[in-house]
């Protein structure tokens, strides 16, 4: 059996904690300086890093059937679960609109699109620079901020490509040449800068979301492009700095890094229920609010690590679809597979 890469397991564990905590603390009261600063630090790199690692593990071109099975089917299943929860339990006004992903499900849709187009996109000369330019200028477009998650797909796509291009030896070389204390110093310096930006309240944290256009953020196109380029740079540096600091050996968090899919898919459902009480905990004072939000995040992570959630996620990503598998071998889809480089291998 191939030995697990515990560095990436530990990295994914760290990131999934940031994802859950980041979502829970988003509902903190507006005058909560600690939570606002923490949001800036988390959102500056946690999704770019997740996309980067996803790209690293996507080097092998998968057939369309596998992509539908592992990404689109779970997307549809959880879209329905969100709709049921919102409509019949939380009494929230919503629609079952599969082209408009709910909460964090945009990531599954974006992953499907990235994995579909990348084998073709990488054949373009200078494909990485093209992706960066598209990511910068999509903020100047009038695309709907959630339709097929197109703005986020373009914004984060460069990190997917960077991950695909990553040579594992490069990480080992950086970890060997750069001491953890130096990396930690860079980490602290960037976080101090982000904390200053958060306190100054001059720029919206949503500049890191990748979803909103520059006009919505109150920015001119040149300023928006400049700020997004700065965000790209910060995210890129933070990805590698954290990679240097993360332990590479198996530890108590390594198992968590192997269950990120279940945590990612389910945590939004729990968060939606938790959020119903935001007026109550926002009135308890900043320190109490901080404790409640962090404890709720950690409790959610612990709960979703349990076997029922992991088993359901594994099942929903491996539902057999014989008819779809046969269709994927013929006609237009079959020709598309050959163009993508899948060829005659079993789909």
UniProtKB/TrEMBL annotation:
Cited InterPro entries: Acyl_transf_3_dom, Nod_factor_acetyltransferase
TM spans (from-to): 12-28, 40-59, 71-90, 126-143, 178-199, 219-244, 256-274
Source taxon at top rank: Bacteria
Give the signal peptide range. none
Q: Where is the Acyltransferase domain?
A: 8-276
Keyword terms? Acyltransferase, Membrane, Transferase, Transmembrane, Transmembrane helix
Checking Pfam families in the record gives: Acyl_transf_3
* UniProt keyword DNA damage, yes or no: no
Q: Which GO terms describe its molecular function?
A: acyltransferase activity
Protein name according to UniProt: Acyltransferase family protein
Q: Which organism is it from?
A: Roseburia lenta
